[in-house]
Amino acid sequence: MHVIFFSDFRFDKIIAKEIPSNIIYEDEKVLAFHDINPQAPVHVLVIPKFRDGLTGLGKAEPRHGEILGHLLYAAKVVAEKEGIVDGFRVVINNGPGACQSVYHLHLHVLGGRQMKWPPG
């Protein structure tokens, strides 16, 4: 059974600073903060500040291209800030079959240990 740690609206409250979080990076488009249930020594979530219908990667449309690219750039910035730029993984879970538990697109930036392959 997969435990849900965040609701979709909790991300909105984190963006609005109504719920405290350990913010690593923020700009006008994205917010990055430490996951409350880390799966690696470094586990940061990177989320767009505006969903714009982008509840999961499977909902992406051409109009989302800029924010998708910006999310990946933000993941690189997070990796630099966390000292893992030479070895990190970016994960996006899409849909129930991939254990997506929050329907607000988000990237997991994982590092600080040797990653295994294959991942799934």
From TrEMBL:
Motif Histidine triad motif: where in chain: 104-108
Protein name: 14 kDa zinc-binding protein
UniProt-recorded Gene Ontology molecular function terms: adenylylsulfatase activity
Catalytic residues of the enzyme: H106 (tele-amp-histidine intermediate)
Domain of life according to the entry: Eukaryota
Pfam families: HIT
Entries under CDD domains matching the protein: PKCI_related (cd01276)
Domain HIT: 10-120
